[in-house]
Write a structure and sequence with these properties.
Length: about 100
């Protein structure tokens, strides 16, 4: 596995968990209710999926022509991104905190 592939996997893991770790909407706006809802977190997850996909296309274009993909490729990548987001989801919604 080369450096750009490793970097892209690490970037995807971090990006998938950011919506569950940061309380600001799109990392800028503080929510009026005090905490972000699940809908905002899922929207951020989708946007970050496309951002990471764009970075992946940019890295691939630096190495040569971008290979055309079918829908199966994108379905697998979306599933992998959701699996990467699981630790952040568990931390935010399933982890029991003491004193809470």
């Amino acid at each position: 596995m080369n450096f750009s592939t490793s970097l892209l996997l690490i970037l995807a893991f971090i990006a998938a968990n950011l919506p569950f770790l940061i309380e600001r909407i799109f990392f800028v706006v503080k929510p009026k209710t005090g905490s972000k809802g699940l809908a905002w977190r899922l929207l951020e997850l989708v946007v970050l999926f496309f951002v990471v996909g764009g970075i992946a296309m940019l890295l691939e274009s630096k190495l040569g022509p971008v290979h055309a993909q079918n829908w199966e490729f994108y379905a697998v990548n979306a599933s992998l991104f959701v699996v990467f987001a699981y630790p952040g989801f568990v931390y935010r919604y399933l982890w029991r905190r003491r004193g809470a």
